[in-house]
Amino acid sequence: MEPALKKSRSDSKNPYLSHLEDGSDDLESVSSNGLTRRATTVEAVEKAESGPNNPFNNIPFSDKYFAILDGRRQLPVHQQRDEFLKLYHENQIIVFVGETGSGKTTQIPQFVLYDELPHLTNSQVACTQPRRVAAMSVAKRVADEMDVKLGGEVGYNIRFEDCSGPNTMLKYMTDGMLLREAMNDHTLSRYSCIILDEAHERTLATDILMGLMKRIAQRRPDLKIIVMSATLDARKFQKYFFEAPLLAVPGRTFPVEIYYTQDPERDYLEAALRTVLQIHVEEGPGDILVFLTGEEEIEDACRKIALEADDLLREGAAGPLNVYPLYGSLPPNLQQRIFEPTPEDSKSGPGRKVVISTNIAETSLTIDGIVYVVDPGFSKQKIYNPRIRVESLLVSPISKASAQQRAGRAGRTRPGKCFRLYTEDAFRKELIEQTYPEILRSNLSSTVLELKKLGIDDLVHFDYMDPPAPETMMRALEELNYLACLDDEGSLTPLGRKASDFPLDPNLAVMLIKSPEFYCSNEVLSLTALLSVPSIFVRPNSARKLADEIRQQFEHPDGDHLTLLNVYHAYKSSEGTSDWCWNHFLSHRALISADNVRKQLRRTMERQQVDLISTPFEDKNYYVNIRRALVSGFFMQVAKKSANGKNYVTMKDNQMVSLHPSCGLSVTPEWVVYNEFVLTTKSFIRTVSSVRPEWLVELAPNYYDLDDFDNNKEVKSALQKIYQMAARSKKGSRK
DNA sequence: GAGCACTGC
Question: Which top EC class is given (predicted)?
Answer without folding.
Answer: hydrolase
